[in-house]
Amino acid sequence: MFFADLPGGLEVLVLLGSASDKAIAEQMVEVFGEFGVRAHFMVCSAHRDHERLAALVPAAESAGARVIIAVAGMAAHLPGVCASLTTLPVIGVPGSSGLLGMDALLSIAQMPPGIPVACMGVDAGRNAALLAVEILALARTELREALKHFREELRRRNREDSAALEQVMK
What we know:
This protein is α/β, with parallel strands linked by helices. It folds into two domains: 128 residues, Rossmann fold (3-Layer(aba) Sandwich), CATH 3.40.50.1970; 29 residues. Helix content is 49%, strand content 14%. The chain has six helices and five strands, in the order βαβαβαβαβαα. The chain has a five-stranded parallel sheet with strand order 2-1-3-4-5, with helices on both faces. Helix 1 runs parallel beside helix 5 and helix 5 crosses helix 6. The radius of gyration is 17 Å and the shape is globular.
């Protein structure tokens, strides 16, 4: 069986089309750690191992996953194939390999009607993780509160940056 290593209590499954997408995944590790979200990371190509992918997505749902994040560059079929295999929300992250990521971006953003995929910016693993946290927060009050605090901190830093700039530009 492919999936004996999927942990129970899984909240987010993160699939990388190849190991070259690791830097994008590393952005997510920080976010999930900050919010206490249980994520599991794997490499599974939609092109090189579609049979494994077809079994993995339903198994992740059974293991408790509520969101799937799929990172892929170039043709970037991984997010769309994942979305075709589940009704869970799928977040696609285009990688910058090939054509500066535009090919991957368009492959994810231009899904056919009926099979939606949320599309992040090129290499935007951090935003993908934050969107996954927001989705999970629909059912978890403590995550909603943590997100409110996170946004307040963003505002505070932005205002500090503005004040510092104003002092320099006088």
